[in-house]
Amino acid sequence: MPKKFLIISQVFPPDPAAVGQYFDEAAQALRAQGAQVTILTANRGYDDPDQQFEPREDRSGVQVRRLPASSFGKASMPVRIFGQLSFLLQCILRGLFQRGLTDLLVSTSPPMCGIVAVLIGWLRPSVKVHYWVMDLNPDQAVALEVFKPGHPLVKAMDWLNRRILNRANSVIALDRFMAERLRVKLAGKAAQPRIEVIPPWPMGQHAEALAHTDNSFRQAQGWDDKFVVMFSGNHSWVHPLGTILDAAEQLAGDPRFVFAFIGGGKGKAEVDERIAKWGQLAEGVARPAVVSLPYQPLEVIRYSLSAADLHLVSLGDNMGGIVHPCKVYGALAMARPVLTLGPKESYLNDILSEHPVGWSVAHGDVAGAVRALQEAADLSEEDWNAMGMRARKVVANQFKREELVQQFTDTVMGQR
């Protein structure tokens, strides 16, 4: 009998959120292993709830079911929570009554998704539960000072985390710092689940970079003779960008630079506010060349990522092991150097300390960021290409997509 998987994720393509794209590729990999796969997701865009998707889709053999009243956008925390609760309630009901279910795969999108796994796992003990940890809450909310450590909701979510970790047949963390945080949550438990560390793999659309001369996206933006510094993806408060915006301001007189911020999220407001402020500068005063663009369609991402000369990856100082900005893998796969901003102890610096593929700057070190940007822009074409090729080799050797996908499917199929 083939395994019958139910996958739960509030976001899923064509929504551009990275979590949904990873679930799409994971579902296809499980399907290729002979499993039957059904995905429960929202019928509207997570970042843009005006986007509405078809309620049912057969996606190369993977059955997608998009649930109504499951996403109302990010206008406010109550709106987000209401959408999440509505989505989770529908998932619980469907999961309890799905015939022949053998495996349940959940992540941390939405943050309370663990309650689905706990309830279904408790009422259907024969079902194997797999927990793919993309980020950690309430840790993230506490680190952002949304809630204090002793808040009842924080205690409730910590309790829920311990329950799902105890119930899970497999647990997948994205880096060693995240795995250690999960172990701490279970400190003192006689038996702990085995935690597999599997980094996110580069997406399929990152398969081949485009030369600048062949890139219609770069040409359409008028960047032919520019050094493009790009942040692409979700602009969240957990990925602070203040240091790089301050550096852009100091480099306003250097005509080589363009700073491109592509995507959405709450943190995008800081970028747009800076652009508006610089637009009010007096005539003749140098203005930073900073561009804000929305999320690009999936079929365009290869072009937009290739348009960069240097990719930015930011991790908040207190976010190590809580979140894992996977955009670094896409940047490296596109043969582009990176500039990382964040704490010294992080998976980002694990990569950079071992491989000379970019620069690392601490948050608040604006002078250091300016120096790194100037050094990157001063590279000869030969040196820039060599650094890019080293970046691509890092992915090929250490974060090879096929091997990581296989490691993931072996884990959740019970072959590890």
Automatic annotation (TrEMBL):
Transmembrane segments: none annotated. Residues 19-201 form the Glycosyltransferase subfamily 4-like N-terminal domain. Pfam families: Glyco_trans_4_4. CDD domains: GT4_WbuB-like. InterPro entries: Glyco_trans_4-like_N, Glycosyltransferase_grp1. This is Glycosyltransferase family 4 protein.
